[in-house]
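The instructor's notes for this session suggest beginning with a concrete chain rather than abstract definitions. Hand out the sequence below and ask the class to guess, before any prediction is shown, which regions might be ordered.
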Amino acid sequence: MWAETALEADKLDARLIQTILSGIPLPVILVGADDRILAANAAGEAILGPGQVGRHHALALRQPALLATIEAALRAGTRAEAPYVIPGHSHEVSYRVTVSPVPLGEARGALCAFEDITEQELVGQFRRDFVANVSHELRTPLTTLVGFIETLKGAARDDPAARDRFLSIMEREAGRMSRLVDDLLSLSKVEAQERQRPTALVNVAELVNAAAASFRPAAVDAGLELEILGTDRQARIPGDADQLMQVLQNLIENAIKYGAAGSRVTLALHAPNDEAMLRIDVTDDGDGIEPMHLPRLTERFYRVDDHRSRDKGGTGLGLAIVKHIVSRHRGRLDIGSAPGTGARFSVFLPRN
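After discussion, reveal the predicted structure:
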């Protein structure tokens, strides 16, 4: 530490200062007693921008909290921390800056060490958003249940028709909460296993046929034709059969929900022997999806049409689960759609 070594001013030439700062892994900036930036290592210069060494620190570090902390270190010898945020294209880069007073001969400088806490901030924000979303998803059905229970205990106690209607709604809302809890548990399990690649061999053609068979009644009820292509040849890959079935079920269910009545939902398996990956396409002829929504479809609780999704029983977690399962299998998910053209969800899975 600078405070412990207490080097004399005549020994602190610019070259020595720069050498010492260059050996520090964090971005570091040294502010001299005259309020000018005395030195910075390469990472520190990247934060400052070019040509800032030698200038007044307030011209380069314009955020009030950090400036006040530097001032306290220079004038009162106080060691403290301050936040520093750099705007980015996709997200802000957040630093925790530790400002320490350091002796520079008979004067005092301020050593600013920048610790990147962006990931911690993103994780914290993710947790807050997740709790808020889960709370929001549960609040509506719970409020509905509480309201109808009170009604059934009061005004509708002796009204059989109203009682039956209310119980039907309560059953639907309870089912919605049950599906949400099931999806949350499923998502948690998938995330816990994501780094463990499956090794058992599964026959993808059999899975596709089985998934399609389980949804034929739902397709008929929705007035849709369910078409299966490419399952006439065997296609074995390392995988978790239950999780891959969950992927297929989620995608087929979505295609049936959002496909146009009287149209077709197609499941197509593409597994040429000369390619390293096989592909499963689930295609519908529905309304399609605006391009701006496509990058966010696999986010938790993200819905293109919030009201319509809830009416159809969606939890907003299905595609997030699909993404994590496909990632566990070292594959990828590709989504193609445009308004009026339906949607195509393609799952790529490695053969080895």
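Then share the key points. Residues 180 and 315 are 6 Å apart (CA to CA). The chain has three domains: 2-116, 118-193, 196-352.
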